[in-house]
Tetraspanin
Amino acid sequence: MRMEVKESLLKTLLYAFNVLLFVCGAVLLGLGIWIAIKREGLAALLNDLTYAGIYVITVSGALIMLFAFLGFYACADGSKPAIVLYCTLMLMVIGLKIAGCVIQFVFYREATDQLRSSYISGYDPGSNNRDTALWDATQKDGRCCGLVWHLDWKESDFYKNLTRFPSSCCVRNEDGEFLDEDSCIQGRDHIHTTGCRFVLEKSYFIIGAVAIVTILVELLAVAFMAWFYQHL
């Protein structure tokens, strides 16, 4: 009787873990697709290589959703081969997800360098180029300035030539009017000091955090499935 209760409890836990895994996989898949499609603002300046880790994690999210169904079957049928296959596939997708996280954070540095290069040599209000338009739109709408902070602009060709900050860094009122543009572009006052790197953090760290949580849930699911295997 006690063995039946323990097996029933294990099945309940495994069903719960697989439901949670299906949800986590759906979240990863949705986030990955959203990030890939919504390449707006400064994110549009990054090449596909810097998103390689995110793409790998997105694929792993889709695989988790499929494997969750295998987990439901393994629990319901009590099939040892299905359990072994489930644990093997889950460990493989855990490895894939870890690789995706490593790739993602390795290329975070490259993505940062790409954005830094875009404002150091690519920002030129007089030319009306793509880099300029994207930096101005991001700084104005995001109420930020530079990548890490506003003094980043001092290393740019724009600042070295004109000894001023971009007007898009300036604080505005509710009507969109400058509070004090002259003081702002000289860096004295009414200038946003927070950097715009949240563009990268939003893409990289949110999906990375979800991936890490999913890995922990997967490891627990595999451990309980192995335990369930021993009680069959």
